[in-house]
Amino acid sequence: MKNTEALEQLREMLVDQKVHLCVGSIKEIDLAKDRSALWCRVELWPGKRTVIARMTWADVGADSGTFSFPAKDDLVLVGFSEGQEDLAFVLTRLSTKSDPIPQIAATGDWVGKARIGKKAHLVSDTRINIGKGGAVQPAQALVLGNVLKEFLGNVLDALLDAPQIGQSAMGPVFLDPGVRAELVEYKETYLDQASTNILSQLAFTERGT
């Protein structure tokens, strides 16, 4: 009996009392001046004690990776290396009722969505490929909107400013007034007016090399 009690006491003494994982909420973030780390002040649950934790990233390399900063009150999972509070890391953000999974992801589709008010960036110094069915090297280049807008504007101006647009057996063929009015309307609607022109207000690209 005494041996059993001694073993129980020894077991209690050897129980790991350290916290290895904990849920908490972000209270403040601070980006290092050299951008080597993002530090987060996290209020842990349920005791509401505070730790300074380093943010981790699912994908990171030399000036590359996937990054999205947490915001105040975001729910996060915090891990402690060897159970030490001074070696805390924010492992991931957690979804909540106030910060739900996007509706468009409910079908199981892959979704990349930036936080409200924040821009989304897809950057490469070589080439960005968007394809379907696992195409390794899509062959069709995207059109540059500003270049296309300028080109179409020049074409329409050439038509509208031309004294004649053809020659028939009866003599010069002038632009029909009805056609001219339609071209003027098209130019104003699809090229000149910012609210209805052919340029996207959401997606932007560059020519590259």
What's a quick, concise take on this entry?
The protein has 209 residues and is of the alpha+beta class. The protein is built from three helices and nine strands; from the N terminus they run H-E-E-E-E-E-E-E-H-E-E-H. The protein folds into two domains: 100 residues, OB fold (Dihydrolipoamide Acetyltransferase, E2P) (Beta Barrel); 56 residues, no CATH class.
Give the fraction of residues assigned to helices: 10-25%
The helix/strand class is alpha+beta
First-last Cα distance:
82 Å
- Provide the number of structural domains: 2
Low-pLDDT residue intervals, each spanning 5 or more residues: none
Our count of helices gives 3
Strand content: 15-25%
Total strands: 9
Using only C-alpha atoms, the radius of gyration works out to 31 Å
Element-level helix/strand string: HEEEEEEEHEEH
Mean pLDDT: 88
CATH architecture of the largest domain: Beta Barrel
CATH class of the largest domain, anyone? Answer: Mainly Beta
Shape by Cα distribution? rod-shaped
Strand order of the largest sheet: 1-2-3-7-6
The CATH topology of the largest domain is given as OB fold (Dihydrolipoamide Acetyltransferase, E2P)
Most strands sheet: 5 strands, mixed, barrel
